[in-house]
Fold ATP-dependent Clp protease adapter protein ClpS.
Amino acid sequence: MTRRDLDSGTQTLERTRTQRPRLFRVLLLNDDYTPMEFVVEVLRRFFRKSEQEAELIMLAVHHKGQGVAGVYSRDVAETKVAQVMAAARQEGFPLRVVAEPEAGE
């Protein structure tokens, strides 16, 4: 983008910097009712995790209270949260999923 300085007749080149979009972590939160098998199924279906990855994340949810399913742009994270919540409700489970900004962003 160029800008002409009217007083001196010179042109200045202005550069605009694009920033990377803010990333959001999608977290699965522990509850006492959602079966571990369903959590693994959700991780495989919506987050494309392997069986082994899904089981490790499910165990983190179970033992630590939450697990990171993935890190995405805001729109993708919100879509995944809505998809998982809808699937959980359809199956009658109270599974909670949230998206939060990545630390250090």
The chain is about 40% helix and 25% strand.
